[in-house]
Specification:
By secondary structure, this protein is an alpha/beta fold. The protein has one domain (about 5-279): Metallo-beta-lactamase, Chain A (4-Layer Sandwich). It has helices at about 50-60, 110-115, 190-195, 210-215, 225-235, 250-265; strands at about 5-10, 30-35, 40-45, 65-70, 95-100, 130-140, 140-145, 150-160, 165-170, 175-180, 200-205, 240-245, 270, 275-279. A 7-stranded mixed sheet has the order 6-5-4-3-2-1-14. Strands 7-8-9-10-11-12-13 form a 7-stranded mixed sheet. Strand 8 (about 150-160) and strand 9 form a beta hairpin. It starts with a strand and ends with a strand. The mean pLDDT is about 95.
Length: about 280
């Protein structure tokens, strides 16, 4: 059993474009997880990268009628691509919008997306999109879902970020992937994040700042490269993929930072748009 991880958006805060950003990309957070055995897909967040993902889904010869999108939180850079997600206009599809985890303050998941698609902001309203939607708010720390007779477990952990955000651990048949973005550890590494990532095959972790940059970015809700590596070391993960790149960090900067990170944690890389990893 293998899981394909494909990055469609790796940028944090705001999308960005230009010749010095081609290698790592400029779209905001969107990650696709595909179980290659079942050909079932889950999408993490709906930043601007979800537009290209939607085109790929439509072109896929294995038509996926049911799509699940799991949200870490609802800051603009993690939902702003949703109105441009082509499968949402297809009346043959059903789309599950899922949040999992205790301590959420919001109570109406549908309203979040309906609000950003009001007529004053966007020409097509949520209710006019063709797909059937089901909005799922699971107030648990973990949940097991059955897909085609096989079970997948998703665990959630609330961590520090303005307004709150959640990390997720996906497990199936002994394979585990942890997505932990938009997290600020502060002065000490959050032990709950380490526990969530324990012995994971792949940890995808936010690192928007250098240690020096963080001194002027405290309480902005993000981690440093050093902290991402420290989590990977403490949790004993097999591979680390760093994402949520700062819009001020161009390709040259990120390539240099990747080498520095690999000097400390050899199985580490900085995520790039369209990059694929197999777990």
């Amino acid at each position: 059993m293998s899981i394909q991880v494909k990055f469609y958006g790796t940028r944090g805060s705001t999308p960005i474009c230009g010749p010095t950003y081609y290698q790592f990309g400029g779209n905001t957070t969107c990650i696709q997880l595909t179980d290659l055995e079942l050909n079932r897909t889950a999408i993490i967040d709906a930043g601007t990268g979800i537009r290209a993902l939607g085109k790929d889904i439509r072109a896929d010869t294995h038509n996926r009628e049911n799509i699940i999108i799991v949200f870490t939180h609802f800051h603009w850079d993690h939902i702003q691509g949703f109105p441009f997600f082509a499968p949402a206009d297809d009346d043959t599809r059903k789309i599950y919008m899922l949040v999992l985890g205790k301590g959420r303050k919001m109570r109406n998941l549908r309203d979040i997306f309906a609000m950003q698609m009001q007529h004053v902001y966007f020409p097509v309203q949520l209710g006019s999109m063709g797909a059937k939607f089901e909005f799922l708010q699971v107030d648990k720390e973990d949940e097991t879902f059955e897909i085609s007779g096989d079970e997948i477990t998703i665990a959630a952990n609330r961590h520090q970020h303005p307004g709150g955000a959640y990390g997720y651990r996906f497990e199936r048949k002994g394979k585990s992937i942890v997505v932990c973005t938009d997290i600020e550890h502060g002065e000490n590494i959050d032990p709950n994040v380490v526990a969530l990532a324990k012995n994971a095959d792949l940890l995808i972790h936010d690192a928007q700042y250098t240690t020096e940059e963080y001194e002027s970015k405290k309480e902005w809700g993000h981690s440093t490269f050093d902290q991402a590596i420290e989590v990977a070391e403490m949790a004993g993960v097999k591979q680390l993929a760093i994402t949520h790149h700062d819009p001020e960090h161009d390709d040259e900067f990120l390539l240099d930072m990747e080498k520095k990170c690999q000097d400390r944690f050899s199985d580490c890389l900085l995520a790039r748009e369209q990059m694929e990893l197999i777990v």
